[in-house]
Write a structure and sequence with these properties.
about 475 residues; alpha/beta; about 30% helix
């Protein structure tokens, strides 16, 4: 579940239900472990220096040549005594590399220590927060079970990028703006920081000390200030959330619905983006869904929602929401958008309800009136799961630059079968295309690997963050 002071990634799930972010979450990029440089090797023994010669030899009086007395020859038949080998100089002692005591290194040592017991640290953090500041409990959803694994991921992100100001600022600014919908205020941040330091001090005794505590105080102060400033700037130009009335609810299968809403005020977004939704049945529980169309003249927004087991928001939207109900929308997010300054084609892979933002991208290209090749591969497990194939095929008939190919894991003869990324390899070449992927995390991982393998550079592959999609089914 989600709340204003959770520690998780803030991402989208265009293929079902996604959990929303917390105070800060995982950003793109892996962990950079701390460590020490290898110890320097002892230098080799210097060879006997030769006297300089030539025009740059030092001038001065010559030194008379020293003659040595001739050595006595050994008796005939006796071998000369072997001279003892010269003693080798003792190797120079190795010196240990200096320990890295930078703030970033101290933060990472703390994280390495608590990683095996991250669940205990997270539980202790929330216990301290709610015990000392019980008023903050009202900002969180009723059930806290799905928040237990978020703190460590968020701390890992902050510590990893604490020495990369540009990345950290862009990342935290987005989260700071997103947390406005939770009712987060500047005065809430010190309480979270107090609980954070208390939990780390209790569970990281080996790495904790005055120097490490000071590093964490400095890091959290910087992190919270970035988020506070971003929220204050965003408040000047956008509401914390939008109210939206459900005006359409169409069941496509027994567990997939197309939900259409009308916001209470203009809602600016781009095709390929996503937003967070909150239903009246589960206050303070937000889930992310991609827009299923490009911006429309009537201002309506559509979402493809699949009800997943134990999915609070998804089941409410599919099985309870009806025209007249009012939901809340967060601000639009995401960068899986079309670059209209480029003539590159679009290679689109949509799995399951991940076809929703792909459909929006096709509409966006059509609205801009440029004839760019758009190749869509629409994947599902069975024919029945291709719930929006008729819509996509009608679009193909209207736009000669669009090609739609359904791909099923186990389908009848004459259709593309197998894994969606593998089907792409049967066509091409794709070196003049920008790639877009939307769907389950596994499909995105395989898709990225496949596309890179056939020569599409990573900077031309766009998708919802994989880390933000993992664990979305709750």
């Amino acid at each position: 579940m989600d709340g204003p002071t959770t520690m998780s990634a803030d991402g989208a799930n265009s293929g079902g239900e996604s959990r929303d972010g917390g105070w800060f979450g995982r950003s793109p990029g892996g962990t950079t472990p701390g460590g020490t440089a290898p110890a320097p090797q002892a230098p080799p023994s210097p060879s006997t220096p030769r006297a300089p010669s030539g025009p740059y030899a030092p001038s001065g009086p010559s030194v008379p040549e020293q003659r040595t007395a001739p050595q006595a020859r050994p008796p005939q038949g006796q071998r000369p005594a072997q001279a003892a080998p010269p003693a080798r100089p003792a190797p120079a002692p190795r010196t240990a590399a200096p320990e890295d005591t930078s703030d970033a290194a101290l933060l990472r040592r703390t994280l390495a220590e608590i990683e095996p017991i991250a669940d205990k640290v997270t539980s202790h953090f929330y216990a301290l927060l709610f015990l000392k500041h019980p008023d903050l409990r009202a900002l969180f959803p009723a059930a806290m079970d799905t928040q237990r694994d978020r703190l460590f991921t968020a701390l890992l992100t902050a510590a990893t990028h604490v020495d990369d100001a540009d990345t950290l600022t862009a990342y935290l600014s987005r989260l700071g703006r997103g947390h406005r919908k939770y009712g987060t205020l500047p005065e809430h941040y010190p309480a979270v920081g107090e609980a954070l330091l208390g939990a780390l001090a209790s569970y990281a005794p080996e790495s904790w000390g005055p120097r490490t505590e000071a590093a964490w105080v400095g890091a959290y102060t910087a992190i919270s200030q970035i988020m506070i400033d971003a929220a204050a700037q965003d408040e000047l130009r956008a509401p914390a959330w939008w109210q939206a009335e459900v005006v359409g609810h169409e069941m496509r299968t027994r567990d997939i619905a197309v939900v259409t809403v009308r916001p209470d005020q203009p809602y600016p977004f781009l095709a390929g983006q996503y937003t967070a939704l909150e239903t009246p049945w589960w206050p303070r529980v937000w889930r992310h869904y991609s827009f299923a169309s490009a911006p429309r003249s009537d201002g309506l927004l559509s979402f493809h929602v699949k009800a997943v087991p134990a999915g609070w928001v998804s089941n409410a939207l599919v099985h309870r929401a009806r025209p007249g109900h009012v939901i809340r929308l967060g601000a639009p997010l995401g960068s899986m958008t079309v670059d209209h300054s480029s003539d590159n084609g679009l290679l689109c892979l949509g799995g399951g309800t991940g076809i929703a933002p792909i459909k929006a991208l096709v509409e966006d290209v059509a609205q801009h009136g440029r004839r760019r090749s758009v190749q869509v591969f629409y994947g599902a497990r069975r024919d029945h799961d291709l719930y929006d194939i008729d819509t996509m095929l009608r679009m193909q008939q209207s736009h000669p630059w669009l090609s739609v190919r359904p791909v099923v894991d186990d389908g009848p003869a004459g259709e593309l079968c197998g894994q969606l990324p593998d089907a792409v390899c049967q066509y091409g070449p794709w070196h003049t295309y920008d790639a877009y992927l939307s769907g389950p995390p596994g499909m995105i991982r395989r898709g990225v690997d496949t596309l890179v393998g056939i020569g599409i550079p990573t900077h031309r592959i766009r998708h919802d963050s994989i880390e933000e999609l993992v664990g979305a089914r709750n």
